[in-house]
Amino acid sequence: MHNQLANTAVLFIDLINDFNFHGGEKLRSNMEEIVPNLLKLRQFAEEHNLPIIYVNDHYRLWQSNPDIIIQHCTNDANQPIILKVKPKPSDYFLIKPQHSAFFQTPLLSLLRELGKTHIIMAGIAGDICVLFSAKDAYMYQFPMHIPKNCIASEQKEGNEYALYLMNTVMKANIDPV
User: Fold this and answer.
1) I need a surface site. Which of 72, 75, 124, 172 has the fewest CB within 10 A?
2) What crossing angle do the helices spanning 131-139 and 156-168 adopt, rounded to 10°?
3) Three-state DSSP class for residue 34
4) Residue from 94, 79, 65, 91 nearest 35 by CA
5) How many CB atoms lie within 10 A of CB 119?
6) How far is residue 127 CA from its own chain's centroid?
7) What is the number of helices (H) and of strands (E) in the chain?
8) What distance in Å separates the CA atoms of residue 151 and residue 38, rounded to the nearest whole number?
């Protein structure tokens, strides 16, 4: 990975989440397990001056302002997580209308403008939004590193199967951080 660092961007997918849906409590619990790894990935990105790009659901607010999304999503159960993983002012923050970080977002244009051709991807849910984003990244011919200890899903089996697909079909490196 280190030889590609100059061309690398880090994508954090749906880290700001209200977990207010059927299965949300299980996803929140599984996300809590990966928070230390997400923070380790963030530290790695900061140490190597890699752009950090958050791509998040819009929660029908349609505001690409992280403060508005954070305020809307924060509740007693998720506040400790959000406080740890929220974007910093120097990070990019995009909203997405559906599962993929690429679908109808400016992500591809941003990556091209930044000159980034390699992606490190992390976030939730691994078997939905991360998987769909990885599929699109693969279609756009981005080599990817999706650390297996930096994604979480409601069901651990679904997460493992998504990692299997991202590794075998989309050629992603899934080595942990």
Assistant:
1) 75
2) 10
3) helix
4) 79
5) 25
6) 12
7) 6, 6
8) 9
Take residue 162 and report the two structure tokens written for it: 């998504």
Query: pLDDT tens digits, residue range 1-37?
Result: 456 789 999 999 999 999 999 999 999 999 999 999 9
Do the beta carbons of residue 74 and residue 81 sit within 8 Å?
Answer: no
DSSP-assigned letter for residue 106:
S
The CA-based dihedral angle spanning residues 138, 46, 7, 2, taken in that order and rounded to the nearest 10 degrees: -90
- Extract the tokens encoding 63: 């505001």
Determine how many CB atoms are found less than 10 A away from the CB of residue 105: 19
Q: What angle do CA 126, 162, 131 make, to 5 degrees?
A: 55
pLDDT tens digits along 38-76: 999 999 999 999 999 999 999 898 888 999 999 999 999
